[in-house]
Automatic annotation (TrEMBL):
PROSITE patterns: RADICAL_SAM. The gene is bioB. The lineage of its organism: Bacteria, Pseudomonadati, Pseudomonadota, Alphaproteobacteria, Rhodobacterales. It holds the Pfam family Radical_SAM. InterPro entries: Aldolase_TIM, CofG_family, Elp3/MiaA/NifB-like_rSAM, F420, rSAM, rSAM_sf. Its EC number is 4.3.1.32. This is 7,8-didemethyl-8-hydroxy-5-deazariboflavin synthase. Pathway: Cofactor biosynthesis; coenzyme F0 biosynthesis. Its cofactor is [4Fe-4S] cluster.
Length: 375
């Protein structure tokens, strides 16, 4: 892709852009749209960053700040397993122990010095005590951390969000957020690729980035993928305004902007990369299908979306009906996509291969398809 192509893309009429993207999706992914039935475990809501749009993070002085104990992790995991979940998503703030004494003390009380070490043990606990597959969303990772996490997690993820350095300036959403410098995040994309980790990443839309910066971010993801073929999915997520954030007055991106960005992503990215947009962050999410998505991401029958707690997940059966009306079948996948399972390649840790393969059907999607809501 070149500059001329990018300029043409920006000028293409929305209907044509959507139609090009939908054709690519239909050709590669067909009319199946997937989701992952998962349980969310917010291991800690403390973080050394302070992104202007984040409602998940809690300062250690906040009574709601916490690190979940192993008992709490297990209780949540077992609840998810009882409801037919197959994936457990660990989401957590970035290395709070490096910034806050209180976080360091809470971690020490649990017997750990580094959050990553605790996360590794919690993944192992989940694997030992439940049938779930852990997926970890722990932000930027060093090579050593990836090596520690790979044997205990089926897949990993980190939103690239943006490649805009501008957004790190004073008054901007990533100001004073050491883990949000694009160089750090691109390094994690590269490192996980070199270590063959099935990886999820994505863009956060509407936080002040320009169209050109979005396109640049998509090319950066694609370049990492072309080198390592490890990007299993890209999420296009829309910024949500909330009363308790620094960006409380910042406008949310309009639907057309989301649709154009999703379509551009489908056109730019290698077609084998799954394209996802969350169904709970826009009432008219079904329109995303017209822009080329093939996946809705994680939907939980047992836990809320801790990142956007005011937005409920759709009922899985209701979503299936909406998809059917739009001409798509909703099917359940695992946290690892079929391409990584089929190849029996280095992307799966040998200790997890048997479990993952036993949970997959012939098509690499979830063997036991569940469309029911929680009991
Ligand atoms: S968005 Fe992530 S990195 Fe930023 S403050 Fe929230 S938890 Fe931390």
């Amino acid at each position: 892709m070149n500059r001329e192509f990018d300029e043409k893309l920006a000028q293409t009429h929305t209907d044509d852009l959507l139609s090009m993207a939908a054709d690519i999706r239909d050709h590669y992914w067909g009319r199946k749209v997937t989701y992952s039935r998962k349980v969310f475990v917010p291991l800690t809501n403390m973080c050394r960053d302070t992104c202007g749009y984040c409602t998940f993070v809690k300062h250690p002085s906040d009574p709601a700040a916490r690190i979940m104990t192993p008992e709490q992790v297990l209780a949540q995991a077992q609840k998810g397993a009882r409801q037919g979940c197959k994936e457990l998503l660990f989401s957590l703030g970035e290395k709070p122990e490096l910034r806050y004494e209180a976080a360091k003390k809470s971690l020490a009380w649990l017997g750990y010095e580094r959050m990553t070490d605790y996360l590794v043990d919690m993944c192992a606990l989940v694997l030992e005590e439940t049938p779930l597959l852990p997926h970890v969303n722990a932000g930027t990772l060093s090579e050593e951390e990836i090596d520690q996490l790979k044997p205990v997690s089926a897949s990993m993820g980190m939103m690239l969000e943006t490649v805009s350095r501008r957004l790190g300036r004073e008054g901007m959403p990533h100001h004073a957020c050491p883990d949000k410098t694009p160089t750090q995040r691109l390094r994690t994309l590269e490192r996980t690729g070199a270590k063959n980790v099935p990886f999820t990443t994505g863009l956060l839309i509407g936080i002040g980035e320009t169209w050109e910066e979005r396109i640049e971010a998509l090319h950066a993801i694609n370049a990492a993928h072309r080198k390592h073929r490890h990007i299993q999915e890209v999420i296009i997520q829309n910024f949500q305004r909330k009363p308790d954030i620094a960006m409380a007055l910042h406008p949310e991106p309009p639907l057309e902007d989301m649709l154009r960005t999703i379509a551009a992503a489908r056109i730019i990215l290698d077609p084998e990369i799954s394209l996802q947009a969350p169904p709970n962050l826009h009432q008219r999410h079904i329109a995303y299908l017209e822009a080329g998505i093939n996946d809705w991401g994680g939907i939980s029958p047992v836990t809320i979306d801790f990142i956007n707690p005011q937005h409920e997940w759709p009922e899985i059966r209701t979503l299936a009906e909406s998809c059917a009306s739009a001409g798509f079948d909703l099917v359940e996948r695992l946290t690892v996509y079929p391409r990584f399972i089929e190849e029996r390649s280095a992307y799966l840790d040998s200790g997890l291969t048997r479990r993952i393969r036993s949970m997959a059907g012939q098509d690499g999607l979830a063997r036991d398809q569940i469309l029911e809501a929680a009991e």
